[in-house]
Amino acid sequence: MCTSRRDFLKSSLAVGVAGNAGLASGDPASKPRPVTIEQLNAAASDPVLKLEGLTSPVKIKTIELLEFDAGDDDYYVLRARSTDGVEGYSLPNSKTGDLTAILKNRVIPCFIGPDVRQLETLLWDVYRYKDNYKFQSLALWCPVAWVEFALLDLFGKMLAKPMGALLGEVRRREVPVYIAGGRELPPQEEAETLARRAEKGGFRAVKFRIGGRMSNNADAAPGRTEALIPAMRKVLGPNVTLVADANGSYDPPKAIEVGRMLQDIGALWFEEPCPFDHLEDTKVVADALEMNVAGGEQESSDRRFRWMIANGAVQVVQPDLHYYGGVVRSARVARMAAAAGLTVSLHLSGGIGYAAMLQFASWLPNPAPFQEYKGDIDKTGGWFDPPIRLKNGSLTVPGAPGLGMTALPDLLKRARKII
């Protein structure tokens, strides 16, 4: 029996009642609501940040990119220091090394000098600076996100509030997450590996990858997808929620064929069935299936998100906090999704992206039942206060101001300056 869209929103409510209060969408409707462009614009237009306690201008003296060793790994940290000496930090994702020139020459200059309490306006200014809009993609928006996170960390310290509280009410202190597999292993071995990981971590949801990744209908190995889909349900059993990610592998006819196989095993959603920018094709798939289609991880345009939501191309909306340019822009997308009765499951672009994800999800009024998690808290969870812990398939949300990182000042004593 497939998980229909009607059942999906009902199950979201059930998870919210049984797990964390407020986990599910605040709208108890059993199906998405018709919504107009005007309604979506209105949902996204109100100010996002709650900075009323900052009564004096906040100006930034320096923004630096640092790198340091921690065990076997190297980590980037972006540090913003105000003219009053307050420091805010962010943890850039894995794209950092390729984007340092854009960060240095096209993003940082926009935030040195102005009153950064006007952050929401500055996000438009940086888009226009030196024709930055010509870089419209993660190449621009990742560096913007790193600066934004550091400024929000700084604001949180000045106001003694965690980042989530800068958006509004903190609704939850634990966030249910799913783990994800890859495409390297044969079907049975992949299913058994994910089953062991799920049991060890107490995860209640697993994402498995199908197709060949932007592969024009080719599979990672001949017959892999057709064998993996039933194997996942057989090996993991009826009590683990399954979601599948095609990473843009299919055209609509093939995606519909695969989607019906996913419906047969009761998968919760089908992520990125068609190439990410083939929005009309994705809508064709969503219209043909009873299950939920998810997408948005590669998206960089608010208008394209608006189109996806208004036209029913996706039912689970997936901005990436790094790729999409930060918390403010993603909060606007979440509001548009909420206006249509849709839920949000953030894409996680690797690294220590779960730090910002947890803060965002602590506020998010319309979360899907699970957010993404790619591991590593065993290495970095102790950097936060309280330490991030994995408990029964959920991650705890740090409560210290800003992003909740308290160990970085000591770790940065051995850092190297990159910018």
Describe what this molecule looks like in 3D.
The structure is a single chain. This protein has helices at 5-18, 37-45, 100-107, 119-128, 138-159, 163-167, 187-201, 224-236, 252-264, 279-288, 302-310, 327-339, 354-363, 377-380, 408-411, and strands at residues 60-70, 73-82, 87-90, 174-180, 205-209, 241-245, 269-271, 292-295, 316-317, 343-344, 371-372, 390-391, 394-396, 416-417. The chain has 419 residues and is an alpha/beta fold. It has two domains: 5-47 and 169-396, TIM Barrel, CATH 3.20.20; 60-165 and 407-417, Enolase-like, N-terminal domain (Enolase-like, domain 1), CATH 3.30.390.10.
Features:
alpha/beta, globular, 419 residues, Enolase-like, domain 1
Blueprint of the fold:
Layout: H1 5-18, H2 37-45, E1 60-70, E2 73-82, E3 87-90, H3 100-107, H4 119-128, H5 138-159, H6 163-167, E4 174-180, H7 187-201, E5 205-209, H8 224-236, E6 241-245, H9 252-264, E7 269-271, H10 279-288, E8 292-295, H11 302-310, E9 316-317, H12 327-339, E10 343-344, H13 354-363, E11 371-372, H14 377-380, E12 390-391, E13 394-396, H15 408-411, E14 416-417
Parallel strand pairs: 4-5, 4-11, 5-6, 6-7, 7-8, 8-9, 9-10
Antiparallel strand pairs: 1-2, 1-14, 2-3, 4-13, 12-13
